[in-house]
Amino acid sequence: MKIILASKSPYRKMQLEQLGFQFECLPSQIDEEPFKDNSSDHTVVAENLAHAKADFIFKSHPEALVIGSDQLVSFKGQILGKPKTREANIKQILDLQGQSHQLITSLCMLMGERKQIRTNITTLKMRPLDRKQVETYVEKEPAYDCAGGYKIEGLGQSLFESIDTDDFSSIVGLPLLYVTDMYLELSGHLPFT
Q1: I want to staple 156 with a disulfide (CB 3.0 to 4.6 A). Which of 42, 135, 151, 168 is the partner?
Q2: Which residues are catalytic?
Q3: Is 53 within 8 Å of 97 (Cβ atoms)?
Q4: Residues in a beta bridge with 136
């Protein structure tokens, strides 16, 4: 079975490789901004984006199993994007420090007439940090391409007091427990078999 990851994310690619999948990556070309304007329910936003990404690729590859995913940071009723610059990275972490936020990771799998969507919500509480600590973190591990401005799989884990999740892998970009469950349901076997 042909498997396509509808993403250009090196993090998601690495995660699927860890499960033993044989797949190709094709990034979807959708404009994400309109999705973020249409709903105050951030879970719905993430699920709609994951589906739109998968569907974009599925339309030109209907014979494949297509995996789409979206992740966003929900903080005080706002969606935080990727910081993209050093100063924005520092500001984002300073805004989050000492407080809790949610990391919403949605996954969509399309195969034939079948569609599955699942979402993992992780609540993270960042420890209180001063500007110098944040600047040092950003200098050592810039996370301009990560919503929230941190890389939990690296030094970023030291920024947190607590992490509450059903699937720690979802923080990186793909909830691998859900990927495996959904793949088993669609295909009847584990990814590496």
Answers
A1: 151
A2: 70
A3: no
A4: none
